[in-house]
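Quick one: structure tokens for this chain, please?
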Amino acid sequence: MGKSEIMTNHETAIRTTYFSIASNTALAIIKGLAGIFGNSYALIADAIESTTDIFSSTLVLFGLKYTSKPADENHPYGHGRAEPLITFLVVGFLITSATIIAYESIQNIGTPHSLPKSWTLILLGALILFKEISFRKVMKKAVETNSSSLKADAWHHRSDAITSVAAFIGISIALIMGKGYESADDVAALFAAAFIFYNSYKIFRPALGEIMDEHLYDDLVVSIKQASLMVDGVIDTEKCYIRKTGMQYHVDLHAVVDGSITVKEGHEIAHRLQDYLQTKLPELAHILIHIEPNE
């Protein structure tokens, strides 16, 4: 991947994270005040989730800035592996927020309290729309930049939207059914916590695969092998191993060439293949070519 494209991707991811931090800060304040004055614990739980999102987005920002550092003597493959580590911390924040919400919801279910205010539904409707738009915006940038931590940050927005939907349903039931159904608001918050736990696993699993060098890139392997055959002197390809680090991929590729050529000619083919692959597939960073003679 060219240096200019790498920097553009990192800059895009960093700008998107600033958006997440700003929006989560504003929403945490709005939800917290609305929950207190509107007698809705589901909204307060929503505010707790948004507050943890501020810290997790800040972690993502730190991780993105760190992974943008160039390779050095101690880190010859760059600093990209910091990204899934940051993703683990983000998941930790999600689990913490879900645990707090679940605990407080269970506590409040058995505690008598007033019905939520009807105006909280209007606020929640606006929040749900905004958070879903935010999810789509951040996820689009995460896909464009190939950032796993940014994808985790996007799912924070989706989780926030889901907790708001749960709050909307709970408050609606409490208001429609009236006295005796005040705890519907708290039950809704409990379901929202369960959904956050589920999303935490979905975010954690692919990040774990990155750390463990799990093979998850069949489509990219096919693209690499097809592109390799376009290079003069390459007869076929054999093994192809891929590791993801940050927003880039490292590749180990075995290329089959004519067994009668000289070592120098084989070396030149390897360099042509490497250059062609990095031009054709700019998401590839380090490419190690192993030359195999045909039999």
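The chain has eight helices and three strands.
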